[in-house]
Design goal:
With 251 residues, the chain is α/β, with parallel strands linked by helices. It folds into two domains: 3-168, Rossmann fold; 188-251, no CATH class. Helix content is 47%, strand content 16%. The chain contains eleven helices and nine strands. It has helices spanning 13-24, 42-57, 71-76, 102-117, 133-137, 146-150, 154-163, 175-178, 192-201, 203-214, 227-249, and strands at residues 2-9, 31-36, 61-66, 79-82, 85-88, 120-125, 143-144, 169-170, 173-174. α1 (13-24) packs across α7 and α9 crosses α10 (203-214). The longest helix is centred in the last third of the chain and has 23 residues, at 227-249. It is globular. The structure holds iron/sulfur cluster.
């Protein structure tokens, strides 16, 4: 029976490190698949563009999937029949309302099934690190976590990518210095520390977040924590910190 190997990547640190190692070690790999929400940081697309020639050189197929409709249409404009009647858009994606990821696994699995239906035994490599045991336990047999097999933890993935010259640079910052996870820039799962870093260091993304907030009633991080509320809060925190610094200088 012929075998077919697909690596699913998000171009974040774990899946990128997995892919780089798979290529370095000459592990069987036929295809790399990426599901693009269209809401990734530019640095993610830059990393993808840097790796694509490496795939081409090795004759590895690259497949990119896209959302059926623009993400922002589903977020802000799509007519949705909710508990309280008809409203427009699903609003922020994240937490228990992760509507943006709903199609992703289906699409990637359907791609794998296409090869299975043509007579291949298909294996999917997934970028789950050795320090994520619960996610590893849930994997079906056809999905393989090379990072777990190699005993590589998340922090080592990041360092391994940096060592190979992949840094996710935006506006002079490495995104992983500002964010715990480099997911969609509009992800409601971002914590307040990450959002404050976006406000301070990545103002162009902050402006985009404000624009979204202006078009949806739901505050991004819950009651009293809309993007506009958070901007006031972060500005006040920064002003207070500056004041304290000045006071320390004169005491
Ligand atoms: S990263 Fe966040 S915003 Fe993007 S699809 Fe996943 S849950 Fe939704």
């Amino acid at each position: 029976m012929r075998e077919y190997y697909i690596a699913s990547v998000s171009w974040g640190k774990d899946s990128l490190y997995m892919l780089l190692r798979l290529m370095e070690e000459g592990v069987p790999l036929n295809e790399v698949a990426f599901y693009d929400t269209g809401m990734e940081f530019q640095a993610i697309y830059d990393i993808r563009n840097k790796v694509l020639p490496m795939l081409a050189e090795r004759g590895i197929k690259y497949t990119e999937f896209h959302t059926k409709r623009p993400f922002l249409y589903d977020m802000l404009e799509k007519p949705v029949n909710g508990k309280n009647g008809l409203h427009l858009g699903y609003s922020w994606c994240g937490g228990c309302a992760r509507w943006g990821t709903a199609g992703k696994q289906q699409v990637l699995d359907a791609n794998a099934k296409k090869y299975a239906d043509s007579g291949y035994t298909v294996f999917q490599y997934v970028g789950i690190a050795a320090d994520e045991p619960k996610r590893i336990e849930r994997l079906p047999p056809q999905k393989i976590a090379p990072l777990a097999i190699w005993g590589v933890a998340e922090a080592e993935c990041l360092q391994g990518c940096y060592d190979r010259g992949f840094e996710w640079k935006e506006s002079g910052f490495r995104l992983y210095d500002l964010l715990d996870r480099v997911s969609c820039w509009c992800c409601a799962n971002k914590n307040l520390k990450e959002l404050r870093n976006i406000y301070v260091h990545l103002p162009e993304y902050w402006e985009r977040l404000k624009e979204i907030q202006r078009h949806t009633d739901r505050p991004m991080k819950g009651p009293g924590k809309s993007v506009l509320d958070l901007e006031t809060r972060f500005a006040a925190e920064i002003a207070r910190e500056e004041e304290n610094k000045q006071l320390t200088l004169f005491t």
